[in-house]
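Entry type: protein chain
Record version: 2
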Amino acid sequence: MHKYSMPVMFEEPNKSLPVGTLEELKQKGYLSVTAQGHDIVLFYHEGEVHALDNRCPHMGFPLSRGSTKDGILTCDWHHARFDIKTGGCFDLWADDVPIFDVNVIDGNIFVHSERANKRKEDLRTYYLQRLNDALEQNIALIIAKSVLTLDSEGVSSSDLFRKGLEYGTRYRQEGWGPGLTILTCMMNIARYSSREDRLRALYHGLSAVAGDCSGQPPRFAVSSLPDVKSATDVSTLKRWFRHFIEVRDADGAERCLVTAIRAGTEPNIIADILFSAATDHRYLDSGHVLDFTNKAFEALDVVGWNLAEQVLTSLVTLYAQATRMEERSSWRHPIDIIALLNDCFDKLPAVLEKSKQSRTTWKASKKIVDVLLGDSPNAIAEVLIESLQDGAKQEELAAIVAYAAALRIAQFPITNEYSDWDTALHTFTFANAVQQAIRRLPSSMELLRAVFDVAMSNYLNRFLNVPSVAIPSEKMEPINKNKNNKNNNNNKDNAKNGVDIRETFLDTLDKRQQVNEAAKMVASCLYTQGEKALSAILVQALLREDRSFHTIQMVEAAFRQKTEVQRLQVLDDIKPISHILIAAARYLAAHTPTARAQGQTFEIAWRLNKDGKLYEEID
C-alpha cells in the first residue's frame, strides 16, 4: 500500500476541502492529508470513501500506517481495531476515532472539516460515559483523557470528584478503602497546585478508585428500620450502633445508621454517632478507621449531604472488622497503657468542667512538646490533663499532639528499618484525622479520647528517633544550582529564581534516599520563596510519582496541619510550619523515585488533548 499526502486549506462556507480524486484513492489504497490542524486519512471500502482522524485515539500513532481488512482498520502500534465506517473501537482500552463526512463530486473527493461522530455539544455526555467506562474497566489512559476533555468542557472538579465517589462507594463490597481516601486527599491537595497538577491530581484519585474496585463485587445497600418517621430516637440509635460495632455486627450497625440518616438527623449528630464508635476502642486499625471516617466527611463537604447514606454506610464494615489496640501486647506490656488511658478518661468530665473556669489563653511551650516526645506515658497523660485544665481547647490540644507526631518523621533517622517510616506515618495521619474531626465536633468527649490515643501511639514510636536527626534551620545558605555565579549569592536574587529551586528539588528526588538533603532544601525554600511556592513544589514532586497511598496521606496531612497551626497560633517560640513541611519532604524523599509510569500515561493524554503529535518523526 502506498501513501499519498498533501496539505490543503478549508473552503468556506461549507467547510469542505478537496483532498484528491477517487481514482488516486483507489490506486494508492489510502490518502493522508493535513488541513488546519486536522490530520485525516481516507480509505476506500466497498464502494465508499471513509475519512477518519489519522491519530489513533489510544496514543496518537498514525492510522495511515495501519492495515485494513474486512472493514476493520487496525493500528500497527498496539493493535487497536476500528470500524472503518463509524470509527467505533472494538478495544475498550482505546477509544472511538473521529470520522469526517465525505462527498464525491465528479470524481473529486471533498472532506468536511467538522467531525461527524463527536459534535461539540455531545462532548460532555460522551466523555462522562467514557469516564464511567474507564472506571469500570480500570483504564487509566481513558480516565486521563476524560478528565482533560471534561475540564475543557467546563465540568467542575467537584463534579468529577462526585463521579469517583459515587462509583467507589457502590462498586467495592468492602466499602471505603485506600482508593477513595486517595481521591479525597487529591481533591484537598489540588488547591495548592497549578491547573495541570490539579487535573493530574484528579486523574490519580479517579485511577486509584478504579484500581481499588477492579475485580470487586458491588456493595449492596442495607435498608432502614420500618417506618423511619416513627423510628426510635437518635440517642438510642447511637447506643445501638455502638453496641453492634462492639460485637462486630456490621449489618445491625449499618441499619441503625441508615435509619438515622433517613430520619433527617443533622450531619453533626451523624458525625457524633460515627466518631464515638470510632473511639470506643484505642487506635482502631492503626488509625485507619477514624482517618477514613474523617475523609468520608470531607468528601461530603465537597459533594453535599445528599450522598451521606451511600458514603457513610461504606465505612461500617471497616468499623466492625477493625483491629483494637487492647488486643496488642505493645499497648499492654510492659506498661498497661490501656489502663492508664481508662483512668484518664474517667477524669475527663471533671477536667473539662474545671477548664471552663480558666480565664487564661493557653499556649503550648517547648517543654510541653518535649514531654509529648518523651519516654514517660504517665508524664504525657499528665501534661494533656493539665493543658485541658489550663484552658486548652480540644482542637488546640489535638494540633499540638499532631505536631509532635510530625516531629517523629522530621527527626526520623534513615538507619531505621524502612518499614518504620509507615509506623510513624500512621500516627501522624491519625493525628491529623483526630484534629480535623474535633474541628467538626469541638465539644465531643468521645473524640477527645483519640487525642490521648495519638499521644500514646507517638510514645510507643519513641525508638524511631534514636538517634534523633537535627532539623535544619530556615536561615541556611539558599539553594543555588550555579554556586559559582557571583550574581546569585544573596537571598533576594535567589528568591527571584523559583524555577531553579523547583528544578533543583525535583532533580534531587530523582535519586534515592535524599532524605536529609530534601529537608535542607525545604528549610531553604521556605525562607527564600515562601510557603505557597514550597507547597506547589511539594505537590508537583508528589504527583509526578506513581501513587503511594501512604505518601499521599503524608503530604495531604502535612498541608492540613501546617494550616491548623497557622490558624490556632498556640505554639510559642517554635516554627511548626517548617517542621511539618520538612516531615512531609523527608517522607516523600524516602519513597522516591518510582517508575513514574502513571505520570507517563497522564502526559500522553495531555499531549493528545492538546493535539500534540507523539510520533512526529513518522511520515
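Comment: The chain has a mean pLDDT of 90.
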